[in-house]
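Handout, section B. The chain below has 462 residues.
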Amino acid sequence: MTGLKAKAESQSDEAEGPDGGWGWVLVGALFVSTSLVFGLMRSFGIFFVEFVRYFDESAHAISWISSTGLAAQQFFSPLGAALCNAYDARLVVMTGGCLAGLGLILASQATCLVHLYLTMGVISGLGWGLVFTPMVATVLANFTRRRTLALGLAFSSIGLSSFAFNPLFQLLVEMYTWRGALLILGGLSLNIVPCGALICPRRSSKAPAKVDSESRSSRAGLLHRISSHLELSLLFERPYMTYTVAITLLNVGYFVPYFHLVAHSRQAGFSEYQAAFVMSAAGASDIFGRVASGWFSDLGHFRTIHLLSVWITLAGAFIMLLPVSSLSGSYSALIVISLLYGFCSGALTSLVFAVVPMIVGVERVMGALGLLQLIESGAGLLGTPLSGFLKDVTGNYTASFMVAGSFVILCTLTMATLPHFFSCTDPPSPQRCSLDDKNKGSHSELEQINSLPSDKNHRGAE
């Protein structure tokens, strides 16, 4: 009996997930890689001012550089997820690291905006898309009880890098011009490659079932495998699509302060380093927000989806207050609102990804994250240029931040339509439902039924 209990306990622990071990090494790898993806992306506001001066273009046109990179990262995320499901996540992430560095190195030689769209936007964005989703899904698969804390610790690198990169990039631009700075950042991005090498190669749990040679070569079989790797069935599930639409609305306004707050601060009359420090302050509070949010969420006092809604609403409100705080020319007021915005924007990030396994199940989290990034890529492509367009029309960034904050708050209202949103407890996690799984499930049930008498006899003998 003791042996049976021990076996049952070990099986339940295995089902829950390891919650440690090599998973913490992967948290460290995600820590570094996210700093070299979103940390760089958030700090491109320093280059925004330089590009406006050098190319003598409008804020709207320059905004498409960062917006294209963000949209490409999200657009190519399903490709990264599908490649990981079909092959090996380690190779996919290492390839993404090479492309991310190559794009920035080529961008340092750009002679027009089109070059920057293709290099910083498409090439680096493709690399970031092959890195971020596989790394996050790998960490999610290695944690259960401390999943949100693990993500919070890993994503704290984004705030830390935002705090460090803004003054550093300003210094690099002054010493080596924007071309030299981009060349250095391209070399720095190649550090993603060893992060990908830390992923343990493992066989895909979703290996396709054995079929005959005719079905293998058929078009229907090919489409079925592609659909399976991309998890396209999620597009027909209401909870997942509702959540995806909500996060898409969040994505319209979330990145606007990181691309335009430096330019807004400069327009408000503050010096270059004062403007850079505004983003550094937001990055510093972002760190504490991510870790504190992950720790508090894992305590289990409140549902993760409810905590996420609170942080999103507060973040939207503080985005709208950013231009208001600088109307009087008070640098202290701008710093305070930036700190509060940074904390809330950091607090919501890890929860956004931690909610996904609760909606689709751990088995489909790789494809779910890829599709989520793909769908919200349109919002990433729209948000920053819309902000730049409003600035060109009005002459300042007040309308830009107001509209961005409104989209963020609209995200909360959309999430409120999720099934069981107002329930005090989480619904059970859904399981994969397919014809193959149904056949396997019925077969395993028959095996369990047939084994019941022998189990009872065995227990009676003990």
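Note. The chain is about 80% helix and 0% strand. Compare this with the example in section A.
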